[in-house]
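Supplementary Methods S3. Input chains for the assembly prediction are listed below.
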Amino acid sequence: MDWARVWTGRNWERLLVGNLFTNGEVGGLLLTMEIGLLAIILSTVLGALLGILRHSRRRLLWVPAAAYIETLRNIPLLILVFWAYFVPPYFGVQTSKFGSVLGALTLFTAAYIAEVVRGGLLAVPPGVVDAGRALGLSRSQNQLRVVLPIAFFNMIPALSGRYVVAIKNTSLAFLIGLSDLTEVGKEISNVLMTSPVEVYVTLMLIYFSVNTLISHAMRLIETRRRFGRIFVRL
Amino acid sequence: MTGFDLGALDRTAYVLILQGLLMTCKLAAASLFWAALVGVIVGTIRWSKLPAISQLCLAYIELARNTPPLVQILFWYFSASVVLPEWAFMRLRNAGYEFSAAVVALSLYHGAFIAEVFRAGLNAIGRGQYDAARALGMNFWQMMTRIVTPQVGRLIAPPMVNEAVALVKSTSLALAIGVAELTYEYKQIDNFMFRGVEALVVVTALYLVLCLILSQLGRLLSNRLAARHTAIIEVTA
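Predicted structure tokens for the full assembly:
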């Protein structure tokens, strides 16, 4: 084991920010987090929308949502990335690597988050909904102030799991040639040639730290009930 | 670009796709078998709370679940010659080394998830039931087949099926180390026959069908298990 060859200042710099300081190209962990966090935010919005549609009792709303969810959950993300990257040029639309990966990851994660949201909504006891209505809240007030906060806290553990998966899935970016954390690690390993174990263990440790951080942050939100106030302010 | 035409995929392309499908199925079946084995063993150890070894299993589960499967595949592929003892590596290399590396990586990755599912299933049965079974004079095997399996089976069947579907989807990542599975064959057709979009449509449809069949079979199994609400008790006069 020769960690000194892998853990040089230059290698750490490339792993963390890519070539940001030499030629201004963002890469490494910074790019991974950029894709990951953007995908998490966008897919949460899209997933919440889909989940609410899926929960609806109107056939016109839940059937398309269910079709979307079932399709996206049953094809590999990698295939979706290829769709986003190789198919639009066929119709004369130019694609960027960053946009394709971000788009595919968002659409894919949204399908899973939709199921989480639906599960959270189903888990709200019907008595609570009736109680809100009986107190004279309008249907929308009831949804926003009573149902959503309860559902939100129910959903946090499952959501945090999906977020970790989203961060893990950003590693697919390297398969279409984006210089994310995995790609930088692979390049370093190729140059050194003799220390694959050290390089890949380093990669795993970085991913592990980031994901553990996300899980802990989500757990913190779960224990602080005052985060529920965001729904009251809406 | 020329128009979309599924007929443009010739016989060779379809043969390639079918070979890829076969490889995907083989990879998924092998990984699923080993993942289930790893999951059951590690899950039982975690449930039993044996002092040191249980902590070790927890470390493995956390590490496997929080790192990308793709990085794990690359790790096992490129580090195999260093990590494994020489005789084991030589044997692996002769048996087609990309395939083995992918199986090892995927079964360790999904094994960690299955272990947690299995542990949750075992935890769902109150400790009192185990004591009661013991008090009734059941041996370990009887306890497992009559008390544990009928109850745990229907609890863990749905998450296990989800995991199996996830595993089939993960096999597409083996493309990164050159296992000739379905996604790899799509890339081949794209590179050498320039019929990428048609091949992509066919490959996507195949994945969709494969995963849907798997989840329907799983649903059937879950329903059958759920129908049996209680353990089968043989009454002898």
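The domain at 3-124+157-211 of chain A is CATH 1.10.3720.10 (MetI-like fold). The interface with chain B takes residues 70-71, 73-79, 82-83, 86-87, 90, 164, 168-172, 174-175, 182, 185-186, 189, 196-197, 200-201, 203-204, 207-208, 211-212, 215 of chain A (CB under 8 Å).
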